[in-house]
Amino acid sequence: MDYSATLRRGWQIVWKNKWLILLSLIPALGGLGFLLVSFAGAGFPTDPSTMTPDMLSRLGTRTLLLSCVSVLFSLVIGIIGLAARGGMIVGVAGVERGEAYGFGRAFRAGWRKVLSLVGMTILLYGVVLALYFAMIAVLVLSLVIGAAGAARPRVTGRACWQAWAYW
Questions:
Q1: Which end of the chain has fewer CB atoms at under 10 Å, N or C?
Q2: How far apart are CA 119 and CA 129, in angstroms?
Q3: CB neighbours of residue 83 within 10 Å
Q4: For residues 85 and 25, what is the distance between their CA atoms, to the nearest angstrom?
Q5: By C-alpha distance, which of 76, 81, 74 is closest to 24?
Q6: Longest dimension (CA), the chain
Q7: How far apart are CA 139 and CA 10, in angstroms?
Q8: CA distance 120 to 114
Q9: pLDDT in tens, 61-81
Q10: Quick check: is 59 in a domain?
């Protein structure tokens, strides 16, 4: 295989169709959004000895809310990124066939392919995603039980363990 000819042809396609650069930046900008969401939790106090039960309860609520927003944000950004990747694939294939493609047409074509791309992504990363969501569930449930215990000090560790085992 002639790699230099392949790279040269790829560069020619991108240079003639600069909208491909914009399509490739959409998933990259999603990473910037993840960075912003991760900095949203930077104001959490970290020394539990100085926290009152009310502060622990509020911390648990804020953490749960931030976790939910982060998961929803990542799902939306991930789907938009898949649509952009699908648009790049369809757009380059169309340009190679001699069809006229632009940013909007390629993104719409990629959006129509999102379901199949989501299916392929789940097949590729299914085990990792399952472990990720299981860890999130354990973390969120632990925070909720801890916040409930901090809000009501009469709740014993045994009651928390029973709630955990029931779940």
A1: N
A2: 13
A3: 24
A4: 10
A5: 81
A6: 73
A7: 45
A8: 10
A9: 777 787 788 778 888 888 998
A10: yes
Domain count, the chain: 1
pLDDT at 13 over 70: yes
Among 82-91, 101-110, 150-159, which is the least confidently predicted range?
A: 150-159
d(CA 17, CA 4): 20
Residue 162 belongs to domain spanning: 3-37+49-166
Say whether 1 sits in a helix, a strand or coil.
Answer: coil
At 46, list the tokens.
Answer: 């970290």
Closest CA to 106 of 77, 85, 129, 76: 85
Cα–Cα dist 50/47, whole Å:
6
- 105 in a structural domain: yes
Cα distances from 125 to residues 29, 39, 85, 112, in angstroms, run 21, 26, 17, 21
Residues 112-160: tens digit of each pLDDT: 999 999 999 888 888 888 898 899 888 888 877 777 666 665 555 555 5
Residue 111: CB partners within 8 Å, gap ≥ 6?
83, 86, 87
Radius of gyration of the chain (CA): 23
Q: Please report whether residue 44 resides in a domain.
A: no
